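Good morning N.,

You mentioned wanting to compare the apo and holo forms, so I went ahead and generated the holo version with pyridoxal-5'-phosphate. This is what I fed in:
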Amino acid sequence: MVPRLVLDGAALVANWRALDRLSAPGQAAAVVKADAYGLGAVEVVRRLSAAGCRQFYVAHWAEAQALVAAGVLPGERISVLHGLAAGDEPFARSSGARPVLNSPAQLARWQSMGGGACDVMVDTGMNRLGFAPDELGAIDWSGFIVDTVMSHLACADSDHPLNDAQRAGFNAARALVPARRASLANSAGIVLGGAYAFDITRPGLALYGGLPRAELTDVIRPVVAIEAPVIRLRTVSAGATVGYGADFVAQRETRIACLALGYADGYKRALAGIGGFRLGDRHLPLVGRVSMDLVCVDATDAPELAEGDWLSADFNLAEAEARTGIAQYEWLTHLGKRFERVWRDLA
Ligand SMILES: *Cc1c(COP(=O)(O)O)cnc(C)c1O
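and this is what came out, ligand included:
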């Protein structure tokens, strides 16, 4: 029995709709890179497309290719954030997906392929990807159809002065690019309000239940739940130890349940002493270390629990980040491959 991720399709759609409303006067796209932050990009795209989302962002061409091959999206609705490296040309040409051009060299490569529809990333202070504003003035844009000019906020999850500086820099830079649309905000940037919304916003984390800012607490619903089966129950005497390093020492006679879930599934070792599972309204705390494929919980207060029963992890992204220092982005993108991903689409 493998553990399962129970994915709430209705919450995913509700989160996109809420972010789309908050993006007024613009519209929300969806960032589905890294297999939709670990949830499964094909299933996410299927649901958000049906809900009306018309623009999707991935990091790599292989990610775009997988979505086109699965038949869930035409290439025209996909933008590839890493732009165009040598070797990307064949699929870039055949798919209709747009490169997000990040540098003069990428622009030249796209031009040598005949140009056409693309997006353009402008750097406004992150100093990662994108054209520097002073590289834009000299460009001859004839032969290019720039759909979206965009930039990316470095500090939108806090009230940092760089937010306003990047917005001002973006307004200046986008005047130099003949684009149909403009885009600046990620999930956290949407909270900064209409001045940051432009035509399209690019939420990722918040679609999947992450909370980059406290303002989203009552807006965003959790999407991901972790469930694991009990594969062994035993009762140990006071003084017995459990698991690697004998870290847990039973203070009383204790019923121990071993669940088929571990750090190989993304249930990280940092949850030792913090994590636990739910049975009805009872919390069964983790005992000892998190192993690769197993965790143990104290099930003394759940005498009815039997081998083969399932427990839900008491796991909340924002709280896990606060208590371990591991980012919500990492928790999601490290969710393991061997989970069975089960979508529930109840309203
Ligand atoms: C990943 C990414 C996003 C999404 O950011 P979230 O914080 O997950 O909403 C938006 N824009 C760009 C350029 C990105 O790389």
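The mean pLDDT is 96.

Happy to go through it together on a call whenever suits you.

Best,
F.
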